[in-house]
Amino acid sequence: MNSEELFRKLLGLEEPWIIKEIKFDHKEKRVDIFIDFPRGSRFPCPVCGIPYGVHDTEERTWRHLNIFQYPAYVHAREPRIKCNDHGKKTVDLPWARKGSGFSLHFEAMIMEMGREMPVSAVSRIAGINEDSVWRILKHYVDETRKDVDLSDLKVLGIDEFSVEKHHVYVTLFYDIKNSRVIHIEEGKESDVFGKFIMKHPFLDPSGIEHITMDMYPSYISGAKEYFPASEIVFDHFHVIKMMNDTLDKIRRKEARENEILKHTRYDWLKNYPDLSEKERDRLMSVKSLDLQTSHAYHFRIALQRLWQVNASIAESYLMKWISWASRSRMPDIIKLGKTMKRHLNGILEAIRSGINSAVVEGLNNKIRTAFKRSYGFKAQKYRDTIIYLVAGGLKLPPEC
Ligand SMILES: [Zn+2]
User: Are 117 and 109 in contact (CB under 8 A)?
Assistant: First the structure.
């Protein structure tokens, strides 16, 4: 196989495309690949597929992958045909998508790197500017999202997500079974459900059996209004999140008067087996003290057991916990107990149906990590691209 034939294969070129010349410039440190087609070649109209002779051409260059350490560029005359039905059309090229200055192989490499590293690093390694990297990521994410299939969506999860430090909230919609973010909506009011339905015209709301969420009044009323046939559930993840918020609120208040509680936040919130030895020792020494925080901690431990007891006694167990909370003499715990009582059915239904949205936490962590590494205003502008790229479960990079 000669080098022209090799490059023809590597670029996926088919008739009538040929490699005219390959130039390696040692001084300039670059490889230039010149592609062409023989006189009299015909190309199919990109709309109807009927082949036509070339109407006119435009000289263009595409950035391709490096060949060893040298950047490579593809040069060609991009042909236009004049279709009887569709007028002047630029033909489809086998090595690049329309309008892009990069080859498909190059873009696939950018997508691959973009999932794992900060855009600034991708930009530096690939030798193209950050804007170009963002545009490639956005293009493929948007393209792939067009084919997202929600026909087997049975368990919908929703959760608020704060994308920056200044408490700007979006609501994320999750496909719990397939562990992916399927929709992003501004705000956290009840109408986010309506907007979600509007933007997914093929979604059948009555096909959604369960919606799992926080006990936010606006989410609950929105779900009831827009998904009247679905059952609202509050699963382990959301219940414990609420318990943890209460526990941390109590600790923060108490820490103002009690130095010993400073810097112990995660000792109380993490599961015991996940604590380091140092954290365990610290927790043990503080837990035995007569503190509001340690009392609240026992409520958390007891509440967690709800998911370990037999489902048949879950209701009586939870009722006991609620009654214990009502006698706690801690206003925040009493309030939490009342909330649990009001949402008893949703909590028990989550246990009965075995719905668990722990995947939400995993996806949220992935998203947070991605935002941390691509901080700055681009992260705002390309917010949805970042979220779908790391948590959308999309089949990327594109085939080429
Ligand atoms: Zn046509």
Answer: no
CA of 91 to the centre of ligand 1 (A): 10
Q: State the distance from the centre of ligand 1 to the C-alpha of 85, rounded, in angstroms.
A: 5
pLDDT in tens, 58-92: 999 999 999 888 999 999 999 999 999 999 999 99
In the structure, what pLDDT confidence band is assigned to residue 304 with cuts at 50, 70 and 90? Answer: very high
For residue 103, what are its two tokens? 């080859």
Please give all residues whose CB falls under 5 A of ion ligand 1, grouped by chain where several chains appear. 45, 47-48, 83, 85-86
DSSP-derived pairing of the beta strands 210-212 and 231-233: parallel
Residue 160: CB atoms within 10 Å: 16
236 CA distance to ligand 1 middle (Å):
56
- Lowest-confidence range among 1-15, 314-328, 347-361, 366-380? 366-380
**What is the 42 CA–ligand 1 centroid distance (Å)?**
13
Distance (Å) from CA 50 to ligand 1 centroid = 6
pTM comes to 0.83
- Which two structure tokens, joined as six digits, stand for 120? 């600034």
Q: How far is the CA of 84 from the centre of ligand 1 (A)?
A: 7
Cα 46 to averaged position of ligand 1 atoms, centre (Å): 7
* Ligand 1 centre distance from Cα of residue 367 (Å): 43
Helix axes 292-304, 314-326, angle to 10 degrees: 170
Q: 106 CA to middle of ligand 1, Å?
A: 29
Name every residue whose Cβ is closer than 8 Å to that of residue 255 and which is 6 or more positions away in sequence. Answer: 261, 262, 264
119-144 exposure pattern, b = at least 16 Cβ within 10 A, e = fewer: beebbeebebebebbbbbbbbbbeeb
Closest CA to 153 of 197, 198, 205: 205
Residue 266's region, left for phi above 0, alpha for psi from -120 to 50, else beta, is alpha
